[in-house]
Description:
Low-confidence stretches: 1-10
Number of domains: 3
Structural class: alpha+beta
Largest sheet: 9 strands, mixed
Shape: elongated
Mean pLDDT: 88
CATH architecture of the largest domain: 2-Layer Sandwich
CATH topology of the largest domain: Alpha-Beta Plaits
Amino acid sequence: MTPAPTTPPAELSLEEYRFLRQLGRVADDLLEESLRERETLAQCFRRCFPTLLQHTGARAIALTTRDEELVEQTWSEGNWGGIFPGALLAGATGVRAHGADTLVTQTLDVAGSPVGTLGLLYAGVPVDAETTARRLRALDVLAEELDTVLMLVHTASEKHQLILQCNEHLANPVFEAGMDQAVRTLAQRVRLPGFLLLYRDAVQPHVLHYRTYRHGQLEYESGEQPSSPLETLLQQHGTRLLHGDAGVLKRLFDGRTTEAVLISAAARSEPLGKIVVWSNEGFSAYAMDLIRVLASTLSQRLLDYNRERIHLSQFFPTDSIDALLEDPDYARHLRAQEQEVGILFADINGFTRICEQGFDSPRSIGRFVDEWSARAVDCIWAHGGVFDKMVGDCVIGLFGPPFFQADRVRRAEAAVRAACDIQAFTAELGARAEVAALCQRVGLPGLGVAVGVNLANANCGLFGPNRNYTAFSSGMNQAARLQSLAGFRETLVMQSVHEALRTSQEPFVRKLQFGPLTETPVKNVAQPLRHYQLSL
């Protein structure tokens, strides 16, 4: 194949002008009908090509472009002499001989972005310059009609592919890692000089977290890489930053174009977060559309992420939740496993009498239990423990889960420290005038708590239809029975705890004092409980 000689274009005659206008109208009608019927590209070309061949007088037509899946394809109609036309369209564009025929090709593009190549094959070798020019002008008319349609398809396909990629990234069990990947992918498609994500904390909705990016790369994040200006704004405005326009945030991006997109959970609900983007050059409609799509995807991901955090916050302190969710396979830490754990049962002394004689309504009982139990759980969490459950007014804690990194001595130390803290704050609560009066009214010497502490093997993990973190073993039953034996403001520890603490070098533990070893038979337990009374 040799290129045809370069010739000056022929003058456009009235007859040719009418022909080209008619050709454009025919192509436009065919494409409009195809779009109206929502046809695929393959269906569209099957509809258009036969008619276009009739009007151009060409022997064959072919078009190479990307399909809806962004995979390059070649569609053709007519006689190409048994040769795959895609290979012919891949060559230089223009007019050239193809055996005994003439191939005319042109690149399809919109605003400088190539979207494919269109070619017409005419019978006979390249002829005079006037005929060649007419064929080039006819091809140009078809290209003008086709390239805009193809750009729309490609843009929609690219957007769809990007959405799928962002969804895949955001499905990452580690939310922050998935978010970083999604923004990086978005920045590869559109100019994204600045990107800020603000979002609520799932457990503490009044707290906002943030991540900022520059050209798709993480720049600042709340916690490990804080931004001083952002921290100042958060202190001044708090969650008000999620409402209204981005006026306050514009102070951080002085002299730049700023756009804000809210991330909402549902109509009339408080926003989950906000995306703010900024650029000296502004953003195209295409870029903002992609950013809004990302915001929509983020809404569901944040809902899922928040549900995870809220579920885990029933059992674990914030530090443990953060550590869990930073592990892509964090579920492995929550699967049932048998381990030796510290076990704590704490129950308010005389609670039944307090409820029946001390309070004027169930609501008052609820408020009192809420305050005491919240502080008891804080004591458990402060020493790395897990809140198992609450049975009545009895709070149950486990020490060791979910990572089981500490040895048995550390687990026993943590359980005893938590027990001492619960005893201390309960006594302080009892010193409040209204609580002291309540205890006097029901004939109690004060507000106290009975605590039982054990160190035993247990099967720990998420169990039941609600997937609660708990433990099962005879050691749990022993701890419950031990707690029921404890008197007013008394803590009893099993022999296993006492033995573990004997090797502790902690100054606090070394100061603890224990009564004599006691054996107490209890109902439904085969062996008597061997335990010690603990005192400071």
